[in-house]
Amino acid sequence: MTDDAPRRLRVLAAMSGGVDSAVAAARAAEAGHDVTGVHLALSENPKSFRTGARGCCTIEDSHDARRAADVIGIPFYVWDLAERFREDVVDDFIAEYEAGRTPNPCLRCNEKIKFAALLDKALALGFDAVCTGHYATVVLREDGTRELHRASDMAKDQSYVLGVLDDRQLAHAMFPLGDTLTTKPEIREEAARRGLFVAKKPDSHDICFIADGDTQGFLAKRLGTAPGDIVDESGAVLGTHEGAYGFTIGQRKGLRIGHPASDGKPRYVLDISPVDNTVTVGPVDALDVTGLTAIRPRWCGRPPTAGPATYTAQLRAHGGETEVTAELVDGTELQVTFTEPVRGVAPGQAIVLYDGSRVVGSATIASTERRVRAGA
Fold first, then answer.
1. What is the pLDDT of residues 247-273, one digit of tens each?
2. How far is it, in rounded angstroms, from Cα 205 to Cα 202?
3. Which of 106, 109, 131, 300 is catalytic?
4. Which residues contact 239 (CB under 8 A, 6 or more apart)?
5. Among the options 57, 106, 208, 300, which is catalytic?
6. Is 14 labeled as ligand-binding?
7. Is 21 annotated as a binding residue?
């Protein structure tokens, strides 16, 4: 849904209480749309308070969003989706770590909450679009189909976490900040000019439902301790851990092995096995991945053509692009080969494919192929 749509739309603006969503709602209203603001109460304890730039969905965020809506001059509501968020995002996050995978809760939230639960409710109430403060662009083609593209400013681009959106969801998505060729300070200046109190509010970062940033502590409270071994590639025990879920592929710090490798070089997490509760560590070059298999593909608009094709891929929200060859097999599996090996790729992460600036789609990494090393 583009900002220059030929008719006045009924728009539901998701207002997190931050500066981006407030400016997005203000721009949608300024463009002449009939905008209603809504804050999603997603926290199990909505009366909690923020810790600096950590956390979201607190009572402070709700109040900040309401004040912004009042300044913009739009109606405002708070919708409680905490139970749905817990089931679809938080419980999924815990289960993925328990299974030895590394999930991305932001993608899951966009897929299951903002552009599923929220969108479905919005459409049922007669709204035409859901507006958010994401930095991405929806392009309407002459044939009526839509494409998701990177934001004009690559430094702020958030298309990676929107790579799960399908054609129906794109048809009802509005991203007023996507064409912004401005710095974040300039967005804050715009918010200040509009009289929005959130102009100087710190951005949220890390995982929104882990306010203190302690992912391992969060998981330990829910999964308990599960002592196991830390081993090298030969299977020799180097140390112990309190739960394999506390590690991620490529991790270097916090291994607590107690003694260096024979070559004196650092060791990294190579594998996490929930079956025997072991964490395998080894040298950095053992992290080199040459290919992967991904499942549950979702296409942003039209699906890719049959057969192998060349794309660029992004493997994490703030990562760079890498060239790949990808092919959809049997409609369910994406087989990907990297032109050059990449490191730190973990099952559970999302791979998002791009054709230029266009987001082709995404899939969840199921397994990886490592480069065979001399002497390994």
1. 999 999 888 887 767 778 889 999 999
2. 9
3. 109
4. 229, 230, 255, 256, 257, 258
5. 208
6. yes
7. yes
Six-digit token string for 211: 């306010």
**Residues with Cβ within 8 Å of residue 121, at least 6 apart in sequence:** 79
Alpha-carbon distance of 365 to 260, in angstroms, equals 31
Is 109 labeled as catalytic in the residue annotation? Answer: yes
Query: Is 20 within any annotated ligand binding site?
Result: yes
| Residue 57 among the catalytic residues | no
The reply, when asked if residue 16 is annotated as ligand binding, is yes
Instruction: Judge residue 254's burial from the number of C-beta atoms within 10 Å of its C-beta, 0-12 exposed, 13-18 middle, 19 or more buried.
Output: exposed
pLDDT at 53: 44
How far apart (Å, rounded) are the C-alpha atoms in residues 136 and 373? 40
15 is in an annotated binding site: yes
DSSP 277-317: TEEEEE-GGGG-EEEEEEEEEEESSSPPPSS-EEEEEE-ST
In tens, the pLDDT along 287-334 reads: 999 999 999 999 998 888 889 999 999 999 888 899 999 999 988 999
Rounded-to-integer distance, Cα 199 and Cα 355, Å: 35
Sign of the alpha-carbon dihedral angle for 240, 244, 247, 250: positive
